[in-house]
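Response to reviewer comment R2.3. The reviewers asked that we include at least one raw input/output pair. We reproduce the pair for Transporter here without editing.
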Amino acid sequence: MKTKEQWSSKIGFILAAAGSAIGLGAIWKFPYIAGVSGGGAFFVIFTLFTLFLGLPLLMAEFVIGRKTQKNAIDAYKELAPNSKWHWIGYMGIVTCFILLSFYSVIGGWIIVYLWKAITGQLNGLDQSEYAELFGATISNPYISVFVQFLFMLFTIVVVAKGVQKGIEKTSQVMMPVLFILFIVLIIRSLTLDHAMEGVLFLFKPDFSKVTAETILFALGQSFFALSIGVSVMVTYSSYLSKAENLFRSAFSIVMMNLFIIILAGLAIFPAVFSFGLKPDAGPVLLFNVLPNVFDQMAFGMVFFVAFLILFLFAALTSAFSMLEIIVTVLAKGDAKKRERWSWIIGLAIFVFGIPSALSFGVLSDVLIFGKSIFDVADYLVSNILLPVGSLLIAVFVPLKIKKSALYEEFSTGGGIPYHLFQLWFFLIRFVAPIAILMVCYHVIRG
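Raw output as returned:
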């Protein structure tokens, strides 16, 4: 059944798709991974992987969605009828379900910290007290589950309203505000003493610190940061008009993603170095280290509130896309069904995510292969499902869609030079599968 809804404009699509990509991967995960992986060297490698692997895979998903104008399961059925390839779509749905179940936990942490910052509960603490506060917050079962529910509630309400009135309209507000808040924070961060140390950490590569693990981290992060491998972009591009240029849209989204990552680095690392703190604090960088950093600035908590708001906006725009891929399969373009399925699936994800929310408190003793429930869900998505999904899409597109049909799809809406198409085809057919298999091999060995 053909998708009934479409994006109202090209900019609406780009902002929504960029919002999907620019989430916790860019603002939460990239800074701490870069912090433990060499800073500038990691950023250079990540950028190369994003341009030469992430961009081709993003374009591959765009081709599948825009060509068929169908959801993430029916699109594969149309392109490869009477085969099992549509299971890529089912895998994407399962991945997004699991991903949003623990992603919403982090979204809840942002909400509770936003409340604590606004009410002054983060003022005047030292580094150890910030660490204790974070531990006490995420181990409290009532707080953890309640704020996770609030995050999912907002996500459900927006997706239930539809593509134009819900996702697109909300993204058109959130994304510009996100950019404005970033600029304000960067100006403040760069005016601090010793801020240039943080800038050099981000932009001056030290390749002596690069290891095989750093390279594989960068490759995995390039997939995670662009929301590829789960057919989210198949779903979003299915709402895209044939008049739009696929390459320009994909390139715009990649550039926005890289730009946001640079902004995140410029907002975080100069401030961290300015106060003599370490950038390698890991996943708790934003909740343990940054409150301490902002508290030492003039009007610091005002800036930290702004940072948490943009962090929340980025998390929500990604959450919309994860819920959307599931809802659009079940609703099949029916607005009434969309609203009903948004609530059913959204609440199911919330319930499924409760063990992840409790895995730092009452379920902290429950370990699977030595990992908490939250960490198992993260590992399953980041290290297994995303790479496997990306690999299957990289194999599917050149195998099941004729090269001439691929070029015709890229030519629709303005087109690209044939030599650029040839480069894309070579990367998606040969380079991407080999690179992804390297990640899978590393995961198996590790």
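The radius of gyration is 21 Å. The mean pLDDT is 84. Further pairs are available on request from the corresponding author.
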